[in-house]
Amino acid sequence: MSTRPPGRTGRGAPVIAPTADAPGPRRPRAALPGWARRLASANETWTSGVLLLLVAFFTAARPDTFLTRYDLTQIATNAAIYLVLGVGMTYVIIVAGIDLSVGSVLVLSAVLSAEYTVHHGGAEAGWGTVAVSALIALATGLLWGALQGWLVAKAKVPPLIVTLGGFGAALGIAQVVTGGQDPTGAVPSRLQHTVGFGKLFGQVPWLVVIAFTTTLVFGLVLTRTRFGRHTYAIGSNPEAARRVGIDVDRHLVKVYALTGLLAGLGSTMWLAYFGTTSIAGHSTDNLKVITAVVLGGASLFGGRGTVLGTVIGVFIPAVLTTGLIIMDVQQYWQDVAIGVVLVAAVYLDQFRRRGRERG
């Protein structure tokens, strides 16, 4: 029979018997499902919230004039061109680059396209001229972007310097070609009446259809193809990408060429909608597009970003601008507001980055 005193173990440690009043072990709180946690932490969720807040604010401030069917159509149409530019900028920012020249490349592409139209029928030109003019715009943007990509990848010039130089050079060439004046008779009426003002099934503007299709195609390329995976890999760690066999230099040239190509597409959309090259009207396009992409969650340090986020980011300035116009805010203050939004977006990007590093 054991001689140990009750309440003791073999090593002499006291044994505490549970009592009816003693609380049991705490049960962990039910955690959110994995999909819910991912949704809550996704940047697109937060940017969607910001967009909804802006819509709610302007709707409350101007309930009779904001968020009407006409306003929704105008917002989508005005955002369409910047969305096309933003898709290309998303790729560039994911590879830790930047492109300050998109507005000037759009102008140069529009000018060269318009010059061909002027000498081949002008406003009364047929569909053959329209097609060739569009191809000239696309080719101009593609070649200019590829040149900038080569300077970044092969000549090792920082992308900020390359594209800042491209910003001035492209605009300067456009002004030399036109003498600084928007050419007259530069847009065929057929292009304006169909792509510019026409609507699919009489409801959806063709500009919106083009922007949506472009977004869908290159969104799938980014998420479902090897080209997209290589884009993320280079932005995250270019040296590691080289070690696993990715031709980083060639890929960078392709990315910048893609951005130029989409700027050329944007120029055709601009000509169709506005009927002019608007040489002096694109100085802040780069600011607007970069704002949209960063608002959408793309990191300026590379390796992160989505086309879906860019879609949301494009509509935030579009809604902001439309709301400020309805509230009779001067144009100058609109530019100030967009600049403030950009700075805030970059700050939040760095704040989220530091939070992830600490976590």
Automatic annotation (TrEMBL):
One of its GO terms (cellular component) is plasma membrane. Keywords: Cell inner membrane, Cell membrane, Membrane, Transmembrane, Transmembrane helix, Transport. Coiled coil: none annotated. GO terms for molecular function: transmembrane transporter activity. Residues 1-27 are annotated as: Disordered. Its main location: membrane. This is Autoinducer 2 import system permease protein LsrD. It comes from Kitasatospora cineracea.
